[in-house]
Backbone:
């Protein structure tokens, strides 16, 4: 006799489910459908196959929501739009038949769970169903016996499967469903409050109560803003604007005035990386409300236009912000004034000729901030002042302000403020010639965690990420730089992410992917902001050089220099001048080659380049504020001009290479040593003269594939062995006891007597995360408590010299030496 046994099947995990869908659909299901099918089936193989069959048969899709046009934008910025494929009729009938087995309160609870769509407790069900907890409990027992429920360890209950909820909701009449949405909203409101504000708003929307929905949309947006989750809040603010227009009620009857709704929406869009959309909302707001608004609101609208329009319209943005600041200064100070002043000064920072104006505005705003309870704005202004101090050459004062800002941040911890702090600090460190300290700053701010949390980069995050990349590139660490940029630049470039995509183009060039780099540059617009031009356009010029187009490099460099010649930014343009003169020298060398037809534009281009440099009021080749490598740059500048004249001098190249080596700038060092080798061979083509030089060049060129390939070709021609020079560095010795670098930092703080809360505050992590680090340390050291851990650390020599446990990288950042 045949024996039949029941074998329960484990649900698919997500990867297996996706593979199963693709095998069934044979790649006919688009990516969004796949994700929704997997989610709705919850890994149940039978349900998954039924859903796929429905897709393949009729491709019926239903937009969830009343206004598909608005909801599509809402979904793109964190909203709740879904695409659902209709269930097969047979499956719907089977699932509905199971619900017909119950009635009364049990059926009512099923309906409540279906509309809620989440696990809830007994008290919530009693509130929504208008009954008592004992009655709810009795009904839950009945539903459990019929396998219609599932329970969690904390006592919350939900429907046995999400598809069961779908068929229950689909079977309701319109009026019945609206009534249930209102009951669920009331229940959530009584029990959950702000944490479920977005869900409450959605239930009010489906219940047809626009004013209540508006109220809860605003609360949901404000809650997300408080957590600095702009990707979530922007969709809520946009829906709030649509509702305020739909209601056609006067502003005094709305929870927030219409101009303020637009201002909050623009800020959330900007902070979530949707700069163009933010500008559009700000422009709409000014056009609709600017003429009739009170003075403070008009100033806020002007400030929003300037702050969000700075990249696409820098000159107009300055005008708007100046008008906003002047208007605010006629009124009692408020946080809006601090934001406007900060944005205005931010527009002036790349313009040294307006440094006095920037310092005056910043100073007045700082004085006002001292009278207001606005710690985030106060911190930003203080960091901005530190930048102004660095710009004026007062490094000591700048570092003192950074210490003050750090103290302020510790007293008023805020995720966004810590990100702002890291962005400014990393920028200042780069300008001081201390790139090695920048990655630690980003780590302290939790840059990796922010990247996972935010669906799209904000400007502050883009700046911090770009600074980490630039710091790594200055140190010749191309692979490490790529870790900061590659994961977020897999798609086509957009203007709001210009900075990160420009660095991706640079990384592609350094990795030898010249055509890919050129294509990305072609897709990128110019920013017109000035400082970005001087930091990134040199890499575009360098790409032309490696592509063998020195004429293009010369002309492009001259174009940028002409455009910015009167902007007062000459101290920032050292690298651009160097790449441009390199193009001029390459062209001159080509023209001296046999068979080449001279280009009359070469000499004129060189003359114009020399004139542009000579006319600069603040030469980038004279040591001063924000010019940490000016001495090396000056030597390279002089060497390139000698090369252009056909009298390349080996000693000049060697001096430039040695200067870059002292600054730990390996790639320009490698370039100078390569040119030194060429100059030596031009004088005497004996390999022994370049044998000591080329290995040094190859070692410094690691991470710059086009340059390294050129050095290798020269080494092959001269039969110089580069194997020793190109050997990979020895791996760093592992830390004792298997500790990570972060655990070593925490151990030092534990030894200094810091509590978990103090550790969390110092390192900008949660108290819980600090506790996890401490537990890992105790386990790895095989000790029972903190005192024993401190003793082991001291015996093993793991503690910093002062014994206080302060992070070494942190001390380096804030020292003035």
Residues:
């Amino acid at each position: 006799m045949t024996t039949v046994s029941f074998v329960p099947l484990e649900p698919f995990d997500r990867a297996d489910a996706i593979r199963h869908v693709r095998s069934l659909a044979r790649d006919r299901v688009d990516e969004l459908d796949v994700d929704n099918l997997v989610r709705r089936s919850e890994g149940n193989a039978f349900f998954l196959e039924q859903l796929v069959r429905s897709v393949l048969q009729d491709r019926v899709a239903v937009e969830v929501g009343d206004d598909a046009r608005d909801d599509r934008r809402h979904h793109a910025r964190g909203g709740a739009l879904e695409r659902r494929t209709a269930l097969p009729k047979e499956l719907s009938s089977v699932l509905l038949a199971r619900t017909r087995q119950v009635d009364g309160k049990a059926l009512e609870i099923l309906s409540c769970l279906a509309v809620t769509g989440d696990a809830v407790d007994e008290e919530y069900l009693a509130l929504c169903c208008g009954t008592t907890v004992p009655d709810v409990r009795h009904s839950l027992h009945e539903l459990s016996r019929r396998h219609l429920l599932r329970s969690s360890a904390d006592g919350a209950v939900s429907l046995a499967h999400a598809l069961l909820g779908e068929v229950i909701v689909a079977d309701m009449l319109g009026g019945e469903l609206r009534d249930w949405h209102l009951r669920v909203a009331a229940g959530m409101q009584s029990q959950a409050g702000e944490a479920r504000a977005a869900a409450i708003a959605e239930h009010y929307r489906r219940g047809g109560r626009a004013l209540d929905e508006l109220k809860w949309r605003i609360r949901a947006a404000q809650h997300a803003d408080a957590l600095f989750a702009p990707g979530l809040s922007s969709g809520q603010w946009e829906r709030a604007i649509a509702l305020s227009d739909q209601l056609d009620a006067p502003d005094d009857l709305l929870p927030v005035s219409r101009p303020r709704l637009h201002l909050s929406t623009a800020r959330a869009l900007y902070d979530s990386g949707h700069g163009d959309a933010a500008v559009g909302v700000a422009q709409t707001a000014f056009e609709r409300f600017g003429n009739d608004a009170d003075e403070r609101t008009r100033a806020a609208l002007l400030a929003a236009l300037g702050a969000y329009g700075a990249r696409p319209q820098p000159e107009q943005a300055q005008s708007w912000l100046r008008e906003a600041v002047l208007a605010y200064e006629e009124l009692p100070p408020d946080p809006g004034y601090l934001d406007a002043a900060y944005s205005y000064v931010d527009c002036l920072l790349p313009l040294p000729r307006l440094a006095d104006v920037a310092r005056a505005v910043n100073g007045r705003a700082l004085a006002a901030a001292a009278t207001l309870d606005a710690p985030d704005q106060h911190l930003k202004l203080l960091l901005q002042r530190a930048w102004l101090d660095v710009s004026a050459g007062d490094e000591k004062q700048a570092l003192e302000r950074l210490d003050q800002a750090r103290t302020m941040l510790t007293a008023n911890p805020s995720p966004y403020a810590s990100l702002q702090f890291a962005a400014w600090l990393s920028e200042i460190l780069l300008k001081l010639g201390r790139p090695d300290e920048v990655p630690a700053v980003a780590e302290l701010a939790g840059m990796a965690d922010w990247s996972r949390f935010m669906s799209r980069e904000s400007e502050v995050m883009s700046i911090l990420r770009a600074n980490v990349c630039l710091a790594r590139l200055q140190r010749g660490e191309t692979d490490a730089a790529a870790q900061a940029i590659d994961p977020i630049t897999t798609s086509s470039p957009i203007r709001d992410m210009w900075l990160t995509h420009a660095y991706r183009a640079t990384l592609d060039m350094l990795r030898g992917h010249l055509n890919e780099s050129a294509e990305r540059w072609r897709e990128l617009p110019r920013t017109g902001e000035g400082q970005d031009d001087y930091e990134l356009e040199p890499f575009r010029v360098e790409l032309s050089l490696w592509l063998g187009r020195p004429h293009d490099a010369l002309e492009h460099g001259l174009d940028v220099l002409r455009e910015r010649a009167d902007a007062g930014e000459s101290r920032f343009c050292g690298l651009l001048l160097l790449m441009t003169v390199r193009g001029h020298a390459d062209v001159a060398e080509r023209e001296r080659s046999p068979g080449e037809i001279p280009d009359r534009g070469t000499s004129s281009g060189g003359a114009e380049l020399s004139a542009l440099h000579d006319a600069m009021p603040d030469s980038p080749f004279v040591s001063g504020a924000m010019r940490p490598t000016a001495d090396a740059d000056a030597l390279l500048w002089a060497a390139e001009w000698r090369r252009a004249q056909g009298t390349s001098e080996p000693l000049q190249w060697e001096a430039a290479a040695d200067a870059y080596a002292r600054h730990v700038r390996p790639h320009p060092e490698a370039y100078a040593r390569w040119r030194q080798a060429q100059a030596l061979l031009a004088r005497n083509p004996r390999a022994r003269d370049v044998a000591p030089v080329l290995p040094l060049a190859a070692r410094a060129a690691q991470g710059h594939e086009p340059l390294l390939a050129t050095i290798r070709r020269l080494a092959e021609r001269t039969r110089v062995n580069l194997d020793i020079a190109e050997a990979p560095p020895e791996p760093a010795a592992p830390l004792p006891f298997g500790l990570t670098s972060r655990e070593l930092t925490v151990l030092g703080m534990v030894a200094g007597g810091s509590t978990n809360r103090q550790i969390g505050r110092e390192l900008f992590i949660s108290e819980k995360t600090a506790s996890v680090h401490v537990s890992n340390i105790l386990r790895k050291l095989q000790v029972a408590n903190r005192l024993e851990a401190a003793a082991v650390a001291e015996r093993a020599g793991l503690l910093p010299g002062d014994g206080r446990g302060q992070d070494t990288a942190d001390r380096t950042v804030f020292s003035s030496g």
